[in-house]
Write a structure and sequence with these properties.
Strand order of the largest sheet: 1-2-4-3-5-6-7-8
Oligomer: single chain
Order of helices and strands: HEEEHEHEHEHHHHEHEHH
Number of strands: 8
Distance between the termini: 45 Å
Number of helices: 11
Strand content: 15-25%
Helix content: 25-40%
Length: 311
């Protein structure tokens, strides 16, 4: 695989030599051990919401990555649900939800997230998102800084803000592998061109491939175009609450993205996150983009520490 090709694949998800498996890796289908106790499932605008956990506790909103559903957070939701009031989102077009017509998906999702918080009288929830979900979490906090108490993004957003023209070229190259794909072929395309570069464990790749196949490839293109065209940097100064960016590093993959070492990747993200008054970067070594699957115990430790920073 060429450096250019690998770079495109990584950019497509920030909207990853394979090994046989990673010690401690947890396939998402086995992450929680027991099924989650979902109090109710409802829709707010185009968002599907699964309500789980301790009603009356501090609210947490979990937002999954591109082509993912709440199953991505199953382990973490199970661990937190006895203390926190949890709302797990599914974006349209993913995990069996129908896609929606029209553009501006990111800002439409922000508006629906605001409606959810108002309708359920959520007192400044903690917002946690991965990749596309992390980008959405940051975008929401930039526009609604008084409505959140803590923002946690897992490799969400991006420390580089190219010119709009360069960003458009980059986005079109990133979505090219998905344009015109038949839904029946989506799983095999994900395996061949994406998942093996984002997840270390073969067992987790197998699970994510099966679960992600419930998503609509046309919706993937839609969301990628909207998310990757954003420049979040100017709005970071609006986030006046704790903002944690959790960033994995994998020495076999990240050099192809332009990060020669963990220190280089940390420096790039730190320069970006420092635009936020209370921004913090936490690195996790030996993990790819789906760090919660590659190094679950370390990821959970870092996530719970970040949650404890809540103002």
């Amino acid at each position: 695989m060429t450096r250019a090709r690998t770079s495109i694949l990584f950019a497509a998800i920030a909207a990853t030599t394979l090994t046989a498996g990673a010690a401690g890796a947890v396939p998402p289908s086995d992450a929680a051990g027991t099924p989650l106790r979902v109090h109710e499932t409802f829709h707010v605008g185009m968002l599907r919401v699964d309500h789980v956990g301790a009603e009356g506790g501090t609210p947490i909103i979990f937002i999954p990555a591109l082509f993912c559903g709440p199953w991505q957070w199953q382990r973490e939701i199970a661990a937190l649900s006895d203390r926190y009031d949890i709302y797990a989102l599914t974006l349209p077009g993913f995990d069996g939800e129908p896609a929606v017509a029209g553009g501006d998906l990111m800002n439409r999702a922000v508006a629906d997230l605001s409606r959810l918080i108002a309708a359920r009288h959520l007192d400044r929830p903690i917002v946690v998102g991965h990749s596309l979900g992390g980008t959405l979490a940051v975008l929401f906090a930039e526009g609604h800084p008084r409505d959140v108490r803590n923002v946690i993004a897992v490799e969400g957003g991006h420390p580089v803000a190219p010119t709009p023209e360069a960003r458009r070229r980059h986005v079109e190259a990133a979505v090219a592998p998905y344009v015109g794909i038949d839904r029946a072929d989506f799983a095999s395309v994900l395996r061949a061109h994406v998942l093996q570069y984002l997840i270390t464990s073969k067992a987790s790749v197998d699970s994510v491939e099966r679960l992600a196949a419930r998503s609509d490839p046309a919706a993937v293109v839609q969301w990628m175009r909207d998310a990757l065209l954003l420049d979040l940097t100017p709005g970071l100064r609006n986030i006046g609450v704790p903002f944690t960016e959790i960033v994995p590093f994998d020495s076999t993959i990240d050099p192809y993205r332009g990060y020669a070492s963990l220190a280089a990747k940390r420096a790039a993200y730190t320069r970006w996150v420092e635009h936020a008054p209370e921004g913090t970067v936490i690195m996790i070594d030996g993990a790819r983009h789906f760090v919660m699957l590659d190094r679950p115990d370390e990821f959970d430790r870092v996530l719970y520490e970040a949650i404890a920073r809540s103002s």
